[in-house]
Amino acid sequence: MKNAIKKRLYKIKNRLYIEAKYLAHYGFGIGQSYKYSVDPVRKNITIVPTEHDGTRRVAKTTQKTGKTVPVIDIKTSDIQSFFEGHSEFEVEIKRGSIVFSVKQPQASVISLEEAREQKTYKVSVQELAKVSNFEQMTIFDLFKGDGRGELKKKAIGMLSLFSGCGSLDKGFKDEGYDIRFANDRYEKKALKDYHIETYKQNIGDHIIMRDVLDFQASDIPQVDFVTAGIPCVKFSALNTKDNFRDGDSPFHPMVEQTINIIKWSNARSFLIENVANFITVKGGAILKRFKERLSEFNIVSSVIDATSLGSPQKRRRSFILGMKDAIPSITLPNLTEVNTVRDAFYGTAGVNGQDLYFKPTEKTLSRMIHVPQGGNIQSVPVELRAKKKRFNNYCQRLKWDDFAPTITHVQDDVFIHPEEHRYLSVRETARLFSLPDDFTFTGSLTSIFEMLKNAVDYRVSRFLAKTIKEQLNAIKLP
């Protein structure tokens, strides 16, 4: 991918406005001189950087996250006329150029293969006017509620179960939910209580450490919304021992207790997160159980690949969404950006956690050096391979201009940097889950990567938080 580097969304208000942290990487850093031209024949606008000290320079703006990023803002009459005179256009960013071209209406789903050649968005001006950079998340203004519900007047009270390090709750917190109660248990092996401490420093002190099976109705607060990331090891296809799918009983104790807690909380809505086959295992027995015991809820389910929301990691997770007073929807936006491993790792130098990674043993290093980008253990000479780990998901080297594979434990399954002969760092791994750089971790390296392997992608959690809030706010309450 030599020319096209990054596809971005833009916010247009009768002017050309581009705000993105990646602009510097494409040749449009803060202070950079640039020029633009409007071609009425080809119906496009082209922006290019210039070497001379021109009158136009890339400015800077501070986002809600506190990050300072480059911004290009052109308000001239010819630019205004261009956007007022056409209904649809295509935006393309390459190294050293940004091009707006008039296009006819067409589908907006863009494949990775297409994006490698030309990363673009195709969308009407009216929709694009509502879209900005990911940090502001205003893309989700495309999900409208009518705003008549009482919930809109106050923060949505939330209860979180199996909360882990808080990667799911982070998205809901940043969307303004009032997380009143969170819980996870002590893990004797790798995690201990490090996930609880990590949650506290990133989300809040409302988390308690207790086995969810010990809760009774009197322990549970009344809230509007419940989330539960039920531990997935007994549902995962990667687990070949003691898997729920192989047992005789259609009931799982943690699923049953989660349903109990939803009832005890008197919630108006709930969201269950798990591995992709959670909703299909045993012929859909778990989904059926939710519908049976929570018949007062309208329930839908969906499997979301994080890449469909702009994540650099292929990570498919299932979600069950229930609402009492409305028909819920998990509808992914047609607009999305493609982020690769290269995009995710850009600017990690000096960021907290970038210097934290496992040092490979001599044996592991001897395997790493044989693995090309996108390769795995199959590229390693037979005599150097691990006897019990011969599958393609072991000893994987990431590829710069592609999505990352599904990340499990970085050390256990050996995930390798695209170029360097080393494991992925804490920050690189967190970036693959789209977690912001101010999300920090407490604990040993083993425990941190244990947290990350169980994490929910931040783009996914933020999307769900936004669209659920929009739907709850639209409900007419008695």
3D structure, described in words:
The chain has 478 residues and is of the alpha/beta class. The chain folds into 3 domains: 16-136, no CATH class; 150-338 and 458-473, Rossmann fold (3-Layer(aba) Sandwich), CATH 3.40.50.150; 357-424, no CATH class. 22% of the residues lie in helices and 19% in strands. It is built from 12 helices and 17 strands. The chain has helices spanning 77-84, 112-117, 125-128, 167-174, 194-202, 253-265, 281-293, 341-345, 362-368, 426-432, 445-453, 458-473; strands at 16-19, 34-39, 44-49, 59-62, 68-74, 88-94, 97-102, 120-124, 157-161, 178-184, 207-209, 225-228, 269-275, 298-305, 316-323, 396-397, 415-416. A 7-stranded mixed beta sheet has the order 11-10-9-12-13-15-14, with helices on both faces. β6 and β7 form a beta hairpin. α4 crosses α12. 41% of the residues are buried.
